Model the fold of this input.
Amino acid sequence: MFTLSTKQKIFQIGNFRVGGQPGELPTLLIGNIFYKGMPEVLDHKKGIFDKMSVSKWIKSAETFSEKNGVPHCLDIMAMYPDAISNYIEFVIEQTSAPFFIDGANLETRKAGLETIKQLKLENRVIFNGITPRTSMEELAAIRDSGVNIAVLMAFNELDYSSEGRISILQGSIGKKGLFDMGKEAGIMSALIDTIVFDVPSISYAAEAIFLVKKKLGYPSGCSPANATYAWRQAKKGSDLIGNFAASNAAAHSIVQYRGADFLIYGPIKQAKSMISACAINDAIIAYHAMKHFGVKPLVRNHPLYRIF
Done:
Protein backbone atom coordinates (compact mmCIF):
# COMPACT_ATOMS: atom_id res chain seq x y z
CA MET A 1 0.00 0.00 0.00
CA PHE A 2 1.28 3.44 -0.88
CA THR A 3 0.69 7.11 -1.44
CA LEU A 4 1.78 9.12 -4.49
CA SER A 5 3.77 12.31 -4.84
CA THR A 6 2.04 13.22 -8.12
CA LYS A 7 -1.11 15.29 -7.67
CA GLN A 8 -4.05 12.98 -8.30
CA LYS A 9 -6.98 14.10 -10.41
CA ILE A 10 -10.51 13.60 -9.08
CA PHE A 11 -13.42 13.75 -11.52
CA GLN A 12 -17.05 14.35 -10.61
CA ILE A 13 -19.39 11.96 -12.42
CA GLY A 14 -23.00 12.62 -11.55
CA ASN A 15 -23.35 12.21 -7.82
CA PHE A 16 -20.00 10.57 -7.13
CA ARG A 17 -16.28 11.15 -7.56
CA VAL A 18 -13.53 8.93 -8.91
CA GLY A 19 -9.75 9.16 -8.59
CA GLY A 20 -7.47 10.58 -5.91
CA GLN A 21 -4.93 9.03 -3.56
CA PRO A 22 -5.47 5.43 -2.45
CA GLY A 23 -7.80 5.57 0.53
CA GLU A 24 -9.51 8.87 -0.33
CA LEU A 25 -12.39 7.49 -2.42
CA PRO A 26 -13.85 3.99 -2.72
CA THR A 27 -13.41 2.06 -5.94
CA LEU A 28 -16.09 2.74 -8.54
CA LEU A 29 -17.63 -0.58 -9.57
CA ILE A 30 -19.27 -0.99 -12.96
CA GLY A 31 -21.59 -3.87 -13.85
CA ASN A 32 -22.32 -5.00 -17.40
CA ILE A 33 -25.90 -5.30 -18.65
CA PHE A 34 -27.36 -6.36 -22.01
CA TYR A 35 -24.10 -8.10 -22.91
CA LYS A 36 -23.98 -10.96 -25.43
CA GLY A 37 -25.12 -14.07 -23.62
CA MET A 38 -27.15 -12.31 -20.92
CA PRO A 39 -30.09 -14.70 -20.39
CA GLU A 40 -32.56 -11.89 -19.76
CA VAL A 41 -32.03 -10.47 -23.27
CA LEU A 42 -34.52 -12.13 -25.61
CA ASP A 43 -33.59 -10.31 -28.83
CA HIS A 44 -30.27 -8.45 -29.07
CA LYS A 45 -31.13 -6.90 -32.43
CA LYS A 46 -34.37 -5.27 -31.32
CA GLY A 47 -33.37 -4.76 -27.70
CA ILE A 48 -36.15 -6.91 -26.24
CA PHE A 49 -35.49 -8.19 -22.73
CA ASP A 50 -37.11 -9.29 -19.48
CA LYS A 51 -37.57 -5.89 -17.87
CA MET A 52 -38.64 -7.23 -14.49
CA SER A 53 -35.56 -9.43 -14.11
CA VAL A 54 -33.10 -6.74 -15.24
CA SER A 55 -34.75 -4.21 -12.94
CA LYS A 56 -34.31 -6.66 -10.06
CA TRP A 57 -30.56 -6.93 -10.72
CA ILE A 58 -30.18 -3.14 -10.91
CA LYS A 59 -32.04 -2.57 -7.64
CA SER A 60 -30.07 -5.31 -5.91
CA ALA A 61 -26.77 -3.73 -7.01
CA GLU A 62 -27.84 -0.31 -5.79
CA THR A 63 -28.93 -1.73 -2.44
CA PHE A 64 -25.55 -3.35 -1.82
CA SER A 65 -23.81 -0.22 -3.08
CA GLU A 66 -25.60 1.90 -0.51
CA LYS A 67 -25.05 -0.56 2.35
CA ASN A 68 -21.32 -0.91 1.70
CA GLY A 69 -20.47 2.63 0.62
CA VAL A 70 -19.12 1.53 -2.76
CA PRO A 71 -20.30 3.60 -5.75
CA HIS A 72 -21.87 1.55 -8.52
CA CYS A 73 -23.03 2.21 -12.05
CA LEU A 74 -23.96 0.31 -15.21
CA ASP A 75 -22.17 -0.35 -18.48
CA ILE A 76 -24.74 -0.69 -21.26
CA MET A 77 -23.35 -3.19 -23.77
CA ALA A 78 -25.37 -3.24 -26.99
CA MET A 79 -24.98 -5.33 -30.11
CA TYR A 80 -27.22 -3.33 -32.50
CA PRO A 81 -28.25 0.33 -33.07
CA ASP A 82 -31.98 -0.14 -32.43
CA ALA A 83 -31.31 -1.97 -29.20
CA ILE A 84 -29.08 0.62 -27.55
CA SER A 85 -31.79 3.27 -27.64
CA ASN A 86 -34.22 0.91 -25.86
CA TYR A 87 -31.60 0.06 -23.27
CA ILE A 88 -30.76 3.68 -22.49
CA GLU A 89 -34.42 4.65 -22.09
CA PHE A 90 -34.92 1.73 -19.71
CA VAL A 91 -31.84 2.46 -17.62
CA ILE A 92 -32.72 6.11 -16.98
CA GLU A 93 -36.10 4.96 -15.66
CA GLN A 94 -34.42 2.58 -13.22
CA THR A 95 -31.59 4.66 -11.78
CA SER A 96 -30.43 8.24 -11.34
CA ALA A 97 -26.77 7.17 -11.36
CA PRO A 98 -24.40 7.90 -14.24
CA PHE A 99 -23.86 5.08 -16.73
CA PHE A 100 -21.42 3.94 -19.40
CA ILE A 101 -22.41 3.28 -23.01
CA ASP A 102 -20.59 0.61 -24.97
CA GLY A 103 -21.44 -0.76 -28.40
CA ALA A 104 -20.19 -3.73 -30.37
CA ASN A 105 -19.67 -1.66 -33.53
CA LEU A 106 -19.46 1.91 -34.79
CA GLU A 107 -23.09 2.20 -35.86
CA THR A 108 -24.33 1.03 -32.47
CA ARG A 109 -22.08 3.44 -30.59
CA LYS A 110 -23.16 6.32 -32.84
CA ALA A 111 -26.82 5.43 -32.25
CA GLY A 112 -26.17 5.47 -28.51
CA LEU A 113 -24.53 8.89 -28.70
CA GLU A 114 -27.43 10.25 -30.76
CA THR A 115 -29.91 8.99 -28.15
CA ILE A 116 -27.86 10.63 -25.40
CA LYS A 117 -27.94 13.91 -27.31
CA GLN A 118 -31.69 13.73 -27.95
CA LEU A 119 -32.48 12.96 -24.32
CA LYS A 120 -29.98 15.56 -23.04
CA LEU A 121 -28.15 13.01 -20.90
CA GLU A 122 -24.61 14.07 -21.76
CA ASN A 123 -23.77 14.92 -18.14
CA ARG A 124 -24.69 11.42 -16.96
CA VAL A 125 -22.77 9.42 -19.52
CA ILE A 126 -19.25 7.99 -19.76
CA PHE A 127 -18.31 6.87 -23.26
CA ASN A 128 -16.59 3.47 -23.29
CA GLY A 129 -14.29 3.97 -24.95
CA ILE A 130 -11.65 5.57 -27.16
CA THR A 131 -8.96 3.27 -28.55
CA PRO A 132 -5.95 3.87 -30.81
CA ARG A 133 -8.15 2.66 -33.69
CA THR A 134 -11.10 4.98 -33.04
CA SER A 135 -11.93 6.78 -36.28
CA MET A 136 -12.27 10.50 -36.86
CA GLU A 137 -15.94 9.86 -37.64
CA GLU A 138 -16.49 8.42 -34.18
CA LEU A 139 -14.51 11.17 -32.47
CA ALA A 140 -16.74 13.70 -34.23
CA ALA A 141 -19.87 11.82 -33.06
CA ILE A 142 -18.65 11.94 -29.47
CA ARG A 143 -17.95 15.66 -29.70
CA ASP A 144 -21.35 16.34 -31.29
CA SER A 145 -23.15 14.43 -28.52
CA GLY A 146 -21.84 16.72 -25.79
CA VAL A 147 -20.46 13.80 -23.75
CA ASN A 148 -17.23 15.05 -22.14
CA ILE A 149 -15.98 12.08 -20.13
CA ALA A 150 -14.69 8.86 -21.66
CA VAL A 151 -12.63 5.77 -21.02
CA LEU A 152 -9.29 5.81 -22.82
CA MET A 153 -8.30 2.24 -23.55
CA ALA A 154 -4.53 2.02 -23.26
CA PHE A 155 -3.89 -0.82 -25.68
CA ASN A 156 -0.52 -0.76 -27.41
CA GLU A 157 -0.28 -3.37 -30.17
CA LEU A 158 3.49 -2.93 -30.41
CA ASP A 159 4.29 -2.99 -26.70
CA TYR A 160 2.19 -5.02 -24.27
CA SER A 161 4.25 -3.93 -21.27
CA SER A 162 2.96 -1.60 -18.56
CA GLU A 163 5.21 1.16 -19.92
CA GLY A 164 3.81 0.60 -23.41
CA ARG A 165 0.36 1.43 -22.16
CA ILE A 166 1.64 4.76 -20.88
CA SER A 167 3.24 5.58 -24.24
CA ILE A 168 0.00 4.95 -26.15
CA LEU A 169 -1.69 7.58 -24.00
CA GLN A 170 0.93 10.25 -24.61
CA GLY A 171 1.68 9.46 -28.24
CA SER A 172 4.96 9.96 -30.06
CA ILE A 173 6.44 12.04 -32.86
CA GLY A 174 4.06 11.86 -35.78
CA LYS A 175 1.54 9.69 -33.94
CA LYS A 176 -1.36 10.93 -31.83
CA GLY A 177 -1.82 9.57 -28.36
CA LEU A 178 -5.14 8.81 -26.73
CA PHE A 179 -5.07 12.08 -24.78
CA ASP A 180 -4.92 14.03 -28.07
CA MET A 181 -7.69 11.91 -29.56
CA GLY A 182 -9.81 12.58 -26.50
CA LYS A 183 -9.34 16.34 -26.90
CA GLU A 184 -10.49 16.08 -30.51
CA ALA A 185 -13.64 14.36 -29.25
CA GLY A 186 -14.33 17.11 -26.71
CA ILE A 187 -13.35 14.93 -23.77
CA MET A 188 -12.47 16.93 -20.66
CA SER A 189 -12.19 14.08 -18.13
CA ALA A 190 -10.65 10.69 -18.86
CA LEU A 191 -10.65 7.36 -17.08
CA ILE A 192 -7.73 5.16 -18.13
CA ASP A 193 -8.42 1.47 -18.77
CA THR A 194 -5.11 -0.40 -18.70
CA ILE A 195 -6.57 -3.41 -20.55
CA VAL A 196 -6.68 -7.04 -19.51
CA PHE A 197 -6.15 -9.77 -22.12
CA ASP A 198 -6.05 -12.95 -20.06
CA VAL A 199 -5.70 -13.89 -16.39
CA PRO A 200 -1.87 -13.67 -16.23
CA SER A 201 -1.95 -10.25 -17.92
CA ILE A 202 -3.87 -8.84 -14.95
CA SER A 203 -0.41 -8.35 -13.42
CA TYR A 204 0.58 -6.02 -16.28
CA ALA A 205 -2.71 -4.14 -16.08
CA ALA A 206 -2.29 -3.72 -12.31
CA GLU A 207 1.23 -2.36 -12.69
CA ALA A 208 0.08 -0.04 -15.48
CA ILE A 209 -2.62 1.34 -13.15
CA PHE A 210 0.10 2.22 -10.65
CA LEU A 211 2.25 3.83 -13.37
CA VAL A 212 -0.64 5.89 -14.77
CA LYS A 213 -1.36 7.29 -11.33
CA LYS A 214 2.31 7.75 -10.45
CA LYS A 215 3.33 9.47 -13.69
CA LEU A 216 0.12 11.14 -14.89
CA GLY A 217 -2.25 11.32 -11.91
CA TYR A 218 -5.30 10.13 -13.86
CA PRO A 219 -7.97 7.82 -12.45
CA SER A 220 -7.26 4.37 -13.81
CA GLY A 221 -8.65 0.86 -13.65
CA CYS A 222 -9.46 -2.16 -15.79
CA SER A 223 -11.77 -5.14 -16.24
CA PRO A 224 -10.30 -8.33 -14.75
CA ALA A 225 -13.67 -9.95 -15.50
CA ASN A 226 -12.82 -9.92 -19.22
CA ALA A 227 -10.18 -12.51 -18.41
CA THR A 228 -11.72 -14.45 -15.54
CA TYR A 229 -14.95 -15.22 -17.39
CA ALA A 230 -13.07 -16.30 -20.52
CA TRP A 231 -10.90 -18.51 -18.30
CA ARG A 232 -13.95 -20.08 -16.67
CA GLN A 233 -15.46 -20.83 -20.07
CA ALA A 234 -12.22 -22.35 -21.36
CA LYS A 235 -11.86 -24.56 -18.26
CA LYS A 236 -15.54 -25.44 -17.97
CA GLY A 237 -15.94 -28.73 -16.14
CA SER A 238 -12.36 -28.76 -14.92
CA ASP A 239 -11.35 -29.11 -11.29
CA LEU A 240 -8.84 -26.29 -11.91
CA ILE A 241 -11.56 -23.71 -11.46
CA GLY A 242 -12.63 -24.58 -7.92
CA ASN A 243 -14.69 -21.74 -6.46
CA PHE A 244 -15.02 -19.24 -9.30
CA ALA A 245 -16.45 -16.47 -7.13
CA ALA A 246 -13.37 -16.61 -4.90
CA SER A 247 -11.00 -16.63 -7.87
CA ASN A 248 -12.83 -13.73 -9.48
CA ALA A 249 -12.74 -11.66 -6.28
CA ALA A 250 -9.01 -12.35 -5.90
CA ALA A 251 -8.31 -11.15 -9.44
CA HIS A 252 -10.09 -7.86 -8.72
CA SER A 253 -8.42 -7.45 -5.33
CA ILE A 254 -4.95 -7.49 -6.89
CA VAL A 255 -5.63 -4.39 -8.95
CA GLN A 256 -7.27 -2.56 -6.05
CA TYR A 257 -4.04 -2.87 -4.11
CA ARG A 258 -2.15 -1.28 -7.01
CA GLY A 259 -4.39 1.77 -6.89
CA ALA A 260 -7.38 1.00 -9.14
CA ASP A 261 -9.98 3.77 -9.07
CA PHE A 262 -12.58 1.81 -11.02
CA LEU A 263 -13.27 -1.80 -11.94
CA ILE A 264 -15.63 -3.22 -14.56
CA TYR A 265 -16.50 -6.44 -12.76
CA GLY A 266 -18.61 -8.18 -15.42
CA PRO A 267 -22.26 -9.34 -15.31
CA ILE A 268 -24.40 -7.28 -12.97
CA LYS A 269 -25.69 -10.42 -11.26
CA GLN A 270 -22.26 -10.61 -9.59
CA ALA A 271 -22.81 -7.25 -7.87
CA LYS A 272 -23.52 -8.70 -4.43
CA SER A 273 -20.27 -10.66 -4.17
CA MET A 274 -18.08 -8.11 -5.97
CA ILE A 275 -19.33 -5.11 -3.99
CA SER A 276 -18.79 -6.99 -0.72
CA ALA A 277 -15.26 -8.09 -1.68
CA CYS A 278 -14.17 -4.69 -2.98
CA ALA A 279 -15.66 -2.85 0.01
CA ILE A 280 -13.45 -4.86 2.37
CA ASN A 281 -10.40 -3.97 0.30
CA ASP A 282 -11.37 -0.28 0.18
CA ALA A 283 -11.72 -0.21 3.96
CA ILE A 284 -8.34 -1.87 4.53
CA ILE A 285 -6.58 0.45 2.07
CA ALA A 286 -8.21 3.53 3.62
CA TYR A 287 -7.25 2.48 7.15
CA HIS A 288 -3.61 2.05 6.15
CA ALA A 289 -3.60 5.36 4.25
CA MET A 290 -5.05 7.18 7.25
CA LYS A 291 -2.71 5.65 9.83
CA HIS A 292 0.52 5.71 7.84
CA PHE A 293 0.15 8.68 5.48
CA GLY A 294 -2.47 10.89 7.10
CA VAL A 295 -4.72 10.48 4.03
CA LYS A 296 -8.36 10.48 5.11
CA PRO A 297 -11.47 9.37 3.20
CA LEU A 298 -13.16 12.24 1.38
CA VAL A 299 -16.68 10.84 1.72
CA ARG A 300 -18.67 10.10 4.87
CA ASN A 301 -20.12 6.88 3.52
CA HIS A 302 -16.74 5.32 2.73
CA PRO A 303 -16.63 1.53 3.35
CA LEU A 304 -14.21 2.17 6.22
CA TYR A 305 -17.08 3.79 8.09
CA ARG A 306 -19.94 1.72 6.66
CA ILE A 307 -18.78 -1.83 7.33
CA PHE A 308 -16.70 -1.45 10.50
The mean pLDDT is 93. Residues 10-295 form a domain with the TIM Barrel fold (CATH 3.20.20.20).
